Amino acid sequence: CGAGDGGSSAAAEHPLSGFQLQSVLRESARDKTIFLHGKVSCKEQSADAVVILERAPFQADAVSRLLGNNPEPKLQLKNDIYSVYHLNPPPELNEVKATVIHPATEKHIKKYMRQELYLIQETGEDYRNITLPFIESQSFSIQWVYNILEKKAEEDRIVHENPDQEVGFILLPDFKWNQKQVDDLYLIAICHKRGIKSLRDLNGDHLPLLKNVLQEGQEAILKQYGVQGNHLRIYLHYQPSYYHLHVHFVALGHEAPGITVERAHLLSDVIQNLEMDSQYYSKRTLTYTLRSDEPLLQKFKEAGRC
Amino acid sequence: CGAGDGGSSAAAEHPLSGFQLQSVLRESARDKTIFLHGKVSCKEQSADAVVILERAPFQADAVSRLLGNNPEPKLQLKNDIYSVYHLNPPPELNEVKATVIHPATEKHIKKYMRQELYLIQETGEDYRNITLPFIESQSFSIQWVYNILEKKAEEDRIVHENPDQEVGFILLPDFKWNQKQVDDLYLIAICHKRGIKSLRDLNGDHLPLLKNVLQEGQEAILKQYGVQGNHLRIYLHYQPSYYHLHVHFVALGHEAPGITVERAHLLSDVIQNLEMDSQYYSKRTLTYTLRSDEPLLQKFKEAGRC
Description:
Two copies of one chain form a homodimer. By secondary structure, chain A is an alpha+beta fold.
């Protein structure tokens, strides 16, 4: 059962049908998203799972069918020229995306739980004394990143590759994007070079890599999707969600999560900063948010730095 | 037919079924919303209509039904513990809200029309050659700001004041905040000193002012609302919406508009940058977004800089 065994029984193919809801971790009425924690049972064993449900964006070309093929719209209110109806379109016009993490660890479950936020002002010294030892102690697995770089997974999703091990990268659509419309275009460039954990490891030697990602990434997106560079927000996260250098390419009009000033760093700014000072990111105080349940916050508290 | 006549025919009750799509005015993949312009025909007459479709948020108590009562989930991808499925739940679990404006005027249609966004990379030279002359030619009125500073308006809303004309400021709630809960706390610090139009005019001489706003602003908010500095996002906008120096103090968990990386500049970063280089903001290339209908965009286009 579940994701791991590759079995051919119905249960193996549908971990969702054996899902027993334990709790709602978080929900967003604005985003039409809900994060669930539950158990998936199989052969008297039971494992935790996180399921993220998200309704599909509307597709312009399906809208007429949606309005036309509807059972009776239900009038909710009417005032002058304004009225509100509820429609219940048929299943084929109503897709829900379910992202399943199974088996899920305690960390996966915590990641999606709503938490109080704290602003951290991390000096270069804080990074070396608190953050770096923490990252190294955690041994976060990035096997899935290496699977992509080594073409062991998702090879068919690659949009562009420059195979150079110093300045090269693989560009592919982010899981968050269904690739049906460019309004919420979202791609990730994953660098071939290993060992660059984050912004903090960047120095002037990485300028050719960064400039190459910026230039070639924009060119590939223009060629593949017809979207020009001045319609893209191109940025890195600090803290990143995984410690292997990657860059986000997102449609400018799309309010993706993680584009806020205390999380996102524009690639063009990163390049400017390193041109100004090759050691900029080892010295700079960087501001970011941590949730109350994150172990790194505890480390900052223990050090009296939060 | 339509919303106005109160008739009892089927057409009168369902203007949506006679809706002929003309164009998609705007869509938001994140919000699962789409704004449509179309015609509703009736008795050989035809009137404009705007229809806004929005998918329903998930309801926690319906989620188990949604996962259980599904036809075969379709596996989209699988990598290690992560998998993605598409579900097509039955109509009763898939509501769409349709807001109808009918008959709609030209103004309704324009209101919902999406403006294309452009990313501007404004060099120091661009600022002096394009942006500054544009700002000066517009003579934006900031009389309302002077009214606040001179206590001719909104005096009863002041939360804190330091009356010093060099480093002082007035702190008051932003109009966007209803002051009923601190989750979306939003205050503005308006500096007493005049003539600082934006970030671009700041230099090392302004460090005492900026540090004072940061320190005293946080203290006043802690005293008045019990919210600590590490739960606040404190930033300036570039471009600002008015050209008199002001600083935003917003609850960290509140996703206010204008906190994105290409619009917001953390006050702590501004201070660091000026400490590093007193002339930082007169030289730096600053990135921001302009909508296609903004006159400043036209100036950048005329100068061949966009």
